[in-house]
Amino acid sequence: MLDIGSIKIPFSRIGVLIGKEGSVKAKIEEEGKVKLEIDSENATVTVYQKNDPLKALMAMNAVQAIGRGFNPDKAMFLFDDSIQLIVISIKEFVKKDTKRINEIRGRLIGKDGHTREIIEDLTGTYISISGNTVSIIGDFISIQYAREAVNMILQGRKHKTVYAYLEKNSGELKFRKMEESFGGT
Fold first, then answer.
1. How far apart are CA 158 and CA 156, in angstroms?
2. DSSP 8-state secondary structure symbol assigned to residue 51
3. pLDDT tens, residue order, the chain (185 aa)
4. Residue 45 in 3-state DSSP?
5. In this structure, which CATH number among 3.40.50.300, 3.30.1370.10, 3.30.360.10, 3.30.1660.10 belongs to the domain 2-79?
């Protein structure tokens, strides 16, 4: 087996990665054709590739997604080669002001999770805001619109402006996805 790398995840996510009676770990190992070695003292996961490098990278993405706060069911979507994960650092948009990071996290989540839900609904993506990062799971087209909406909020744009951008582009998004599915000209 080939060691393809290690991922550091928060201690609080180790149990989620392992799952009840090891079920999540076993599912990732099966789907990704990998062996996961979990060092719970250092919160490090090492991924060993058995025979399929692409599946092994998908397994690493699934581990990273769980570490970034996604539930395992959503992380398993990353085994579809048309689905990807992106992680955006909130720190890049603020100075070293912890209070400002918390404000921005609050703006991204919105009251009762409303802002995050709107972005997810209009783009067909999944979003997790954990620590100093925003992570998005989605297909190539949808993830671009969700990333732009998140970036707009991180840059301080008004929610109304972000929602208008998403509503304006939701028709184009649906068209581009249909075109991609059915092989547009």
1. 6
2. S
3. 788 889 999 999 999 999 999 999 999 999 999 999 999 899 999 999 988 899 999 999 999 999 999 999 999 999 999 999 999 999 888 776 667 888 888 999 999 999 999 999 999 999 999 988 999 999 988 999 999 999 999 998 999 999 999 888 877 666 665 666 666 54
4. strand
5. 3.30.1370.10
